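pinned: reference chain
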Amino acid sequence: MCGVCGVVGPIDASVLRAMARSMVHRGPDDEGLYLADGIGLGARRLSIIDIAGGHQPITNEDGTVVVVFNGEIYNHRELRSRLETQGHRFATRSDTEVLVHLYEEYGDASVHLLQGMFAFALWDAKRRRLLLARDRLGIKPLYYAVLPDQIVFASELKALVEHPAIDRTLDLTALSRYLAHEYVPAPHSIFRAIRKLAAGHWLTYSDGRVKIEPFWDVHFRRDGAIGEADAVEALRGALDLSVRQHLVSDVPLGVFLSGGIDSSAVAAFAARHFPGRLKTFSIGFEDPSFDETAHARGVARALDTDHHEEILGPRVALDLVARLPELLDEPLGDASLLPTFLLSRFTRRSVTVALSGDGGDELFAGYPTYQAHRLARALELVPHWVRRGLLRPVVERLPVSLDNLSFDFRLKRFMAGMDFGPVERHAAWLGSFTPAEQLALFTPDALARMEMAPSYAAFHEMLAHAPSASGLERMLYLDLKGYLGEGVLAKVDRASMACSLEVRVPLLDRRVVELAASLPMRLKLRGFTTKYVFKRALSGVLPREVLERRKNARASLRAAPAVRATRSRGGSRGCFRPRSPPRRSRRPRGSATSGCASRRSALSTRSRCSAGSRPSAATPLSGVAFLTRAAERADTCAWHRPLAPRRS
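pinned: its structure tokens
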């Protein structure tokens, strides 16, 4: 696991070194630079495989192919054996070296052979050509900026802005999309000059020309009916194989364990293959409404793991709020970043690698929103005038409960979503600021400078790449590409790498994902039973009470920072109106014990207000205290952060 960076174009070794050192948290063990005519590559290394010999950058035998690599290739041993039979000679045991020899043999198509999580940069000196590639689901990040005479790239934005040529002007379209979805969807970043390489894509740069292409996507195949028994057997085998391969490590390894189905499944399969007693890790809180450690403890006893837990006081997570700009380079509206960081910090005291259960809900329809879509489809048969004139007034008159995610709150959110089509409904149920609310939030000047007006266009752009998806599969695709790919995985990467902990996600192995996508929707959502086939595959693997336990709607933290709509120092040049429309506060997402997603235990994660009350304009919005500062301080909405000052 590493942080990578580089420049193709004019090279300043001090700038490249500063870019690499801004990511020391991603790789505290080693630093390496490659400098040649018109090319510079940098890497910070967290040593996992071949601790002594895996120094980066790594080259082929004659030095004409050079690579810097972030991630893990789980089938690197099989690929190494294959390449050795083809005449390639290896100088290390590192999975990174496999990349250069694989490229020599297969070129860009070598990416198709990789099983793992990765973001890498490969320089072909003979062709003077750069290849950037990012793994299929976007587990590892990769940003880039194309300038008139060069391309600059890095694992994190903070490294890119160390380069003096990078313009830090705020991308107002990206800001609008963040406010709609609580993450910045690729290919945008929060900076106008910087882009994210989308998951499952590669980029080539040669002679000043950029070409970006997809090399993989999720396809919902229906090329043959599969019975339930066959699906259960195939899924159980795929999970077992994936977890076993994810255990490969030369350093201590453990598993995040919340006691929920996903993390418990990973722990169960890992315990089967781990040499010795598997270590599992949980955190909990003194407030019992936020604490799930009893469930994790029960699973640990059933699996006989070496279980570690830490119970934290009520202010521990809130004390971390000041560190959010340090953890995040761009806004991410998921307050479960805080418990994920706390869990990673606790886990890192014992191990260097941890397995996580992220991905199960998106693959197997585990969120209540999918149930809500099914119910909405039935309700659409009721005439519109009945819904608007009779049902909604009844729902709006329900007594207000101050309970967390109460029935009346969820029912009101559900009915509000009935005014939209399925795609917009999905976004409105789960997002933050609707397009209409953004029109009242931004200044006219900011709206005029956007590439397009606030909308849910990002979702429609994603779905344009999923012609094989239909019905609820479209919502699963949006969650895989959007909430999981741009939100959950970014959160886990930033929180864990801030602690120099590598987190692996076995449920997002390509074979598991492709198998899940090939299964009919009836095996994922059986009536209103979520994750049906997943639970069936785990029957006999996990205790029955784990499979039957419902998600805890209370397992979240309330974030303290607020986004205030206010003028910047530039007055009318600010992004937000001086007085924003009243906003409901957000109820953050995520499990407090595992850091895995559990955000959809209601139709929306918005908090409620008491009857008749309207919250102030400074109500909480997760994880974006630095966005507030940017809006308040930037004369032209440029992105100002204290961590990476402009180099002169």
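why pinned: The first strand starts at residue 2 and ends at 8. The mean pLDDT is 84.
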